User: What shape does this take?
Amino acid sequence: MITLDELRAITIFEPLPPEPLEFLVGAVEDIRLLPGEYFAHEGDERAFFVVIEGRAEITKMINGDERVIGVRTPGMFFGEVPMTLSTSFPASGRATEATRIMKLDATVFYGLAAMAPAVPAHVATLARSYLDALQAHASEKPVAEAHVIGPRLDAGVRDLATFLTRNHVPFDRVVVEAPAEVAARVAPAHPVLELRDGSRLVAPTMREVAHAVGLAVEPTATDYDVVILGGGPAGLTAAVNAAAEGLRTLVVESLAPGGQAGTSTRIENYTGFPYGISGDDLASRALTQAQRLGAEIVVTRTVESIDPGSHRVVLDGEDALGAQVVIVATGVEWRTLALEAVDRYLGNGLYYGAARSDAALAQGQDVCIVGAGNSAGQAAIFFSRHARSVTMLVRGESLAASMSRYLIDQIAANPGIQVETRAQIVDLHGDEGLEHVDVLDARTGETARRALPVVFVMIGADAVTGWLPAEVARDSHGFVLTGAEAAAAPQWTAERRPFALETSAPGVFAIGDVRSGSVKRVAAGVGEGGMAIAYAHQYLALAH
Assistant: This one.
């Protein structure tokens, strides 16, 4: 614990009378840190820290990089700005060597302030000087790694922008309209990816883009303790837990970390974020955490096959990986509209799923959202801030059967969103791009043509598990059986019972949306990710 003598050795506390010092002795926290450990994170609730022994760095995420913006040595503080302005931490603090930190939470700090007004006055003076430096860091413009060039409504441009956004690669968008003679060519002239060195890639594949901007696309080893297929919330949580426990961990992701949740414009029912968090931000934090703990993540890679006995995983390109445990977290894929004209307008007015990077598509437009789930509701609220109008088309009688109440209430209170129930799109029209849709009103049987040039389809999703070996049992919809259901499948032949998240192939686990009977919520996927590693340890103990 902190002693009176240690408090008197700190300049700001030295002149205080005995009463406030004795109050502090009985109220502060005495925190001891190893090198690299954090005592505060950017965004945490306010508190006041004093370095007693050792050395600490103050870091801030600036344009995607963690940058050291200050140093604290014995007798120095951290938390002046949050305590003065009653805000969360604008930066993080971590020990660079064995360090001892004293923490005053808000209640203790303001209790001290009542007894010794000179302390908060001095802290406020320091806070004002630090604010100038923080404002300078905050105003730095992100350095674009690339420029995406092409027409605003070009499907390839949208896909490329989405890929870069979801992989947290900063870029600038340059809108140019393709002349008719270029648009008529067989070889596409867009999108163009212009890199910082001036080189250009025309209509590149996502693998080529990943290479160009420095994303990892090749595993660094051939053998791992845990190979996780899919980088959604469930897969990233499994990676965090596995890496934290010292397991050699690889995540194989076909597009970008975050999965379906990465496209959610706002998640408001995830514990710990009282004001909500976007799926993209949640995925970014989980990715950073997994990588910091040592997990390896490769993108633009798919799995060709799994050997259920040896757990050998073959990636596209015939790269083979050895694994002691395989975790299937491949999620689901959006269902598509069963209309003949879909291919003509896909990416040119018609889109599956939605993300914050699609705000430009909705700007000033009349937008249509097809779907009634939480993702559709979140998209409608988000696009209402950019679009002229948002229309939700719902096949059912109401939103209540498939959407959380908090979203229903927000939609009802938003004058920019109109909900039409028992309605569906039956045809699409337009010359160069989508211009009108035919909407069937199931109540009257009448069809009306509507000017809705931007349509986001979010009508549920299906498991794509045909690539899995026959030894991994699935239900009639293709979702993977685990636990008791896997035990009842003829593929399970082991003498023991499978673990709760284990498939009918021992040592192969399934988590998240791809698992039969899973709760299609982010929090549930996160929970399963952590549970899977606990069961993986039990499996490894049996195997050895």
Notes: The CA atoms of residues 366 and 389 lie 5 Å apart. The longest strand covers residues 320-328.
